[in-house]
Amino acid sequence: MKTGLNHAVRVTVAALSIVLGLGAAVPAAAQCPGDLNGNGAVDGLELAAVLGAWGTNGQGALVTDLDGDGIVDGADLSFILANWGPCLRGPNWAWGWNEYGQCYIPADLGPCTAIAGGGPHTIALRTDGTVRAWGAGTTDTGSYPNYGQSIVPTDLGPCSAIAGGGTHAIALRTDGTVRAWGYTGYGQCNVPTDLGPCTAIAGGYWHTIALRTDGTVRAWGYNGSGQCNVPTDLGPCTAISAGYGHTIALRTDGTVRAWGANSGGQCNVPADLGPCTAIAGGLGANYKGSYSHTIALRTDGTVRAWGHNSSGQCNVPTDLGPCTAIAGGDRHTIALRTDGTVRAWGRNNYGQCHIPPDLGPCTAIAGGDGHTIAIQR
Fold this sequence. Notes:
Elements: H1 2-20, E1 41-42, H2 44-52, H3 74-82, E2 85-86, E3 92-96, E4 112-117, E5 121-126, E6 131-135, E7 140-143, E8 146-147, E9 159-164, E10 168-173, E11 178-182, E12 198-203, E13 207-212, E14 217-221, E15 237-242, E16 246-251, E17 256-260, E18 276-281, E19 293-298, E20 303-307, E21 323-328, E22 332-337, E23 342-346, E24 362-367, E25 371-376
Antiparallel strand pairs: 1-2, 3-25, 4-5, 5-6, 7-8, 9-10, 10-11, 12-13, 13-14, 15-16, 16-17, 18-19, 19-20, 21-22, 22-23, 24-25
Helix pairs in contact: 2-3
């Protein structure tokens, strides 16, 4: 059977080669994922590498096994063909699931100071304080995944922070007020009128969190697992984050608290965690957080992760080294090392953990529902 499949694929590729040419580029094509030899393009050389390793297991073809399933097959071929063409270079990068164009960085985006990933959409904060979003939600059809989450309000004004939810987007304006748009079936975009000025924001899949200037935390939206029930004894905090159905807070003393969906222990903060400087949540798979996990960056730069580990998202690499930032996606984890390099591990069905070979040192990272984003220095 494999011989027949191999033959059929080679015939198809031969036909494509005639149409495209060996080094042809499909317009508006790939980001750098799939550029196996680092020559700045996904072309016939990568195609040859995949076909040359066809059918071998992951031990013999770690580079060409792009989806990490242990075999080089049609899925890897599809990844190469979908990313065909020159790499789009610039300060902003995205790779992984791209069904809705969430990895296609706008050519006129310009330099950014922050990035965020939602479900199948991406949000960026530009250096002038304006917000851009792309991917799902560029239209407002009222059906998944298009709820207008990528349609930035024209009256938004300058912002200082952004965050993404499953099908909504959140922005913190420079005056400390919060705006949210997109799907609001659970009230996740209905910012409380008495919220007051804030310093940070975060999004779960169907809920929204804000950190007020006095260090208190507010949350609203879907609350089926208690993710919006902020503990009364939480105390003042310095950072917030969320998974699919749980909420995470970093207190001023460096300790971490988490509440909400806990089916995989994602809210069970390790007793030996120690003081931390940053927190992040994985999106998981549904409102019960059936695949959600929690990530913490300790003061010594080491990373810890706990909760659901179905794809190895909590298996921090032993050679990771000290880091300065962390982020979570759908069953994958991302870390920014002190030297600016990016590492990712966990679910890799869309190549979201395959760091582009010529990415270069970065200043910020983010994860979405199957894709990864970075700002390059």
